[in-house]
Design a protein that fits this description.
The complex is a heterodimer of chains A (260) and B (358).
Chain A (H helix, E strand, L loop, with lengths): L36 H15 L5 E5 L7 H4 L3 E4 L5 H11 L4 E7 H7 L1 H10 L4 E6 L2 E2 L5 E2 L18 H4 L5 H6 L4 E8 L3 H16 L7 E7 L3 H4 L3 H15 L3 E4 L5
Parallel strand pairs in A: 1-2, 1-3, 3-4, 4-8, 7-8
Antiparallel strand pairs in A: 5-6, 7-9
Chain B lengths: L2 E6 H11 L4 E4 L6 H10 L1 H4 L3 E4 L3 H13 L4 E5 L1 H16 L4 E7 L15 H5 L10 E3 L4 H18 L2 E7 H5 L1 E6 L8 H7 L15 E2 L6 H21 L3 E4 L6 E4 L2 H16 L4 E6 L1 E3 L3 H8 L4 E6 L5 H9 L5 E5 L8 H12 L1
Parallel strand pairs in B: 2-3, 2-4, 4-5, 5-7, 6-7, 11-12, 11-14, 14-15
Antiparallel strand pairs in B: 1-8, 6-13, 10-12
Helix pairs in contact in B: 1-2, 1-7, 4-5, 11-14, 12-13
Classes of the chains: A alpha/beta (260), B alpha/beta (358).
The complex binds thiamine diphosphate, iron/sulfur cluster (SF4) and magnesium ion (MG).
């Protein structure tokens, strides 16, 4: 009997080191092994669970690899058109000012097709949380160049490397939105090591808690890997991210309110 | 005594929205409908009913705000004119695909492209055949007076919520800009969040322990499920066609010829009827109030009575295709219209009737 064989002395609350976040559904994640999306999901869900706000939270995931986030997050969620999540979030938050509203967007979504919606939601100071997964590529559609693709970086639509002359520069949209008076808290984090995960969790939790203050938009970028799109193995992809992405997209808080 | 006011069509839309207990309006300025947003901003409905009004950064953002609000069970709307409505098509197809109720108002101007700011009826195809991608329909109402601009706001929301389907008021620059007497209805209270939770258990109001999490989406990657869903949508449209056809007939009893026209054109046709009848031509008018569903069955009946139909549209002839289908080519159907923002005169319409049929 499996149950009888459990050593009750070991299975004690104080010995518990890891468990599934309660707000994950039972559906298996569809992300590639090693992808940062799963960890980022977990941090968002842990935050909601710890704050006890599941019944007060509405999430919006537009297209991108995380289009099916609503399958994995046991949260009321809306699927948005490519780039439009901040517009949906704006309306939901204004119609339910007491609820917690967040978007979960990729870099193609947030910094290319949805640039206008992103900047204007930030500039209006919508009292929402934006979680921005920057993997420097269009993961879902098979690894095309994103607005955040690094100079010289190869993708399926920049097969010889991103040529700045003809393809333009990568967009540091996080630094850009930090300039806007409507953003209250802006941070850039990563989820590739336990230490990074802890910092990212803190930033995400701050970003959610800020909604209670009604002082503006909280924006957390997670610089993440896309081993499939980058055509690398997971460990190699993480190392490449450390060596190439972090120097261009340095981690840390970018805009912190004076009170914090 | 009911309250009477002299109002522009666009203002009537705005006041009707407040009175209908609308929760949110999201818009972007464009002539000839900017008065909707201007009126709402001046009226400060947040103080009257708590209604949210927001000038969005674009029509794309505005319709996606509507999508968000509708998904959360709120009574939300937007308005625009032709070029802006084209931009909204992305959001509209998502809303239709997610089966959400909302109201879109199009105060049509001439096109294509930037076209003109003058009235036209050249967005009929876009409004009644879908507009965006995919097999979907909107419930389309066509007001012909400022009073109907007012009344159709309430009606549109009633139908939108009844069928969980976006509704569209297809107006034009003339009706949006003209001033007429309007009978104002009493203030309807906005639904409380508790009422919304009860009435719309599908809405994203926050997952509570008593139900699974709610998902608003138009995505299903499984083709079999997606086809099944499409069949469900089509069945709903059939239901709407069965139940919601609305039209008005003027002097059709003894008519030998028939005008079919909606909105501004239908008003021109009323004068044309007088002029033609003075000349001994027995002509009547069928005016669709709903363009989807279209009054096809009644037109087929009338085709057995009249010798010919003239559709009068401020376009190159778009509704005429539905009229031809309705009468199954049993009698001649001709079109007369002006384009580019020109409203035909009643005399022109009579001349066209004479030239085409007499
Ligand atoms: C209007 C529109 N254009 C294009 C697409 C195709 N598309 C889906 S996801 C995507 C890119 C997603 O990239 P990103 O936002 O970086 O998310 P990731 O998959 O990398 O997490 C594109 C172009 C779409 N669904 N809709
Ligand atoms: S394609 Fe890239 S972003 Fe998408 S799941 Fe795979 S690794 Fe993650
Ligand atoms: Mg990406």
């Amino acid at each position: 009997m499996a149950e009888n064989s459990i050593n009750k002395d070991i299975v004690k609350e104080e010995n518990l080191v890891f468990k599934k976040t309660g707000l994950f559904t039972d559906k298996p994640l569809s992300y590639c092994p090693g992808c940062g999306h799963g960890t980022a999901h977990r941090l968002v869900l842990e935050t909601i669970e710890e704050m006890g706000i599941q019944s007060e939270t509405i999430g919006i995931a537009p297209v991108g690899c995380s289009v099916l986030a609503y399958e994995f997050m046991d949260i009321d969620m809306q699927q948005a058109a490519h780039g439009r999540a901040p517009a949906l979030a704006t309306a939901i938050k204004r119609l339910y000012p007491e609820k917690f509203v967040f978007t979960y967007q990729g870099d193609g979504d947030l910094a290319a097709i949805g640039t206008a919606e992103t900047i204007h939601a930030c500039n209006r100071g919508e009292n929402i949380t934006i979680i921005f997964i920057n993997n420097g590529i269009y993961g879902m559609t098979g690894g095309q160049m994103a607005p955040t693709t690094l100079p010289g970086m190869k993708s399926s639509t920049s097969p010889y490397g991103r040529d700045i002359q003809s393809m333009g520069n990568p967009l540091k949209i996080t630094e850009l939105v930090a300039q806007l008076p409507g953003t209250y808290f802006v941070s850039r984090q990563a989820v590739h090591t336990p230490a990074a995960v802890r910092k990212a969790k803190k930033a995400i939790k701050t970003a959610f808690e800020n909604q209670k203050l009604k002082k503006g938009l909280s924006f957390v970028e997670i610089v993440s890997n896309c081993n499939s799109g980058w055509k690398m193995e997971p460990v190699q992809a993480n190392q490449w991210m450390v060596d190439n992405m972090f120097p261009f997209y340095p981690l840390g808080d970018i805009k912190v309110p004076a009170e914090q | 005594m009911k309250e009477l006011r002299l109002m522009k069509g666009n203002e009537a839309i705005a006041e009707a929205a407040i009175r209908a207990g609308v929760d949110g309006y999201f818009g972007y300025p464009i002539t000839p409908q900017s008065e909707v947003l201007e009126y709402l901003m001046a009226e400060q409905p947040e103080k009257r009913t708590g209604m949210v009004v927001l000038q969005a950064e674009s029509e794309v953002a505005a319709i996606n705000m509507v999508y968000g609000g509708a998904g959360a069970g709120k009574k939300v709307m937007t308005s625009s004119s032709s070029p802006g409505i084209s931009l909204k098509q992305e959001g509209i197809t998502y809303i239709a695909g997610a089966e959400l109720p909302c109201l879109i108002v199009n105060v049509v101007r001439g096109g294509p492209g930037l076209g003109t700011i003058q009235p036209a009826q050249s967005d009929y195809f876009q409004s009644t055949k879908g507009g965006g991608h995919g097999d979907y329909r909107l419930i389309v109402l066509a007001p012909a007076s400022v009073q109907e601009m007012y009344d159709f706001v309430g009606l549109a929301f009633e139908l939108a919520f009844k069928y969980r389907n976006p509704a569209l008021i297809l107006s034009d620059g003339a009706i949006g800009q003209m001033m007429e007497k309007v009978e104002i209805s009493d203030q309807k209270p906005r639904w409380t969040n508790e009422e919304i939770k009860k009435m719309f258990p599908w809405a994203t109001t926050g997952k509570t322990p008593d139900r699974p999490h709610n998902i608003i989406t138009s995505l299903d990657l499984d083709p079999n499920k997606q086809e099944k869903f499409n069949h469900k949508l089509q069945a709903k449209y059939k239901e709407i066609e069965k139940n919601e056809v609305r039209f008005e007939e003027i002097q059709t009893k003894d008519a030998e010829y028939l005008f079919v026209a909606y909105g501004t054109s239908s008003r021109i046709c009323q004068k044309s009827i007088q002029l033609a009848r003075a000349k001994g031509i027995k002509v009547g008018l069928l005016r669709p109030l709903t363009l989807f569903p279209f009054p096809s069955a009644r037109l087929f009946e009338l085709s057995k009575q009249v010798k010919g139909i003239l559709t009068v549209e401020m376009s190159a002839g778009q509704m005429i295709e539905d009229v031809k289908l309705a009468v199954r080519c049993s009698i001649p159907v001709e079109h007369y219209g002006r384009m580019g923002g020109i409203i035909p005169s009643p005399e022109e319409v009579v001349t066209a009737l004479e030239q085409k049929f007499l």
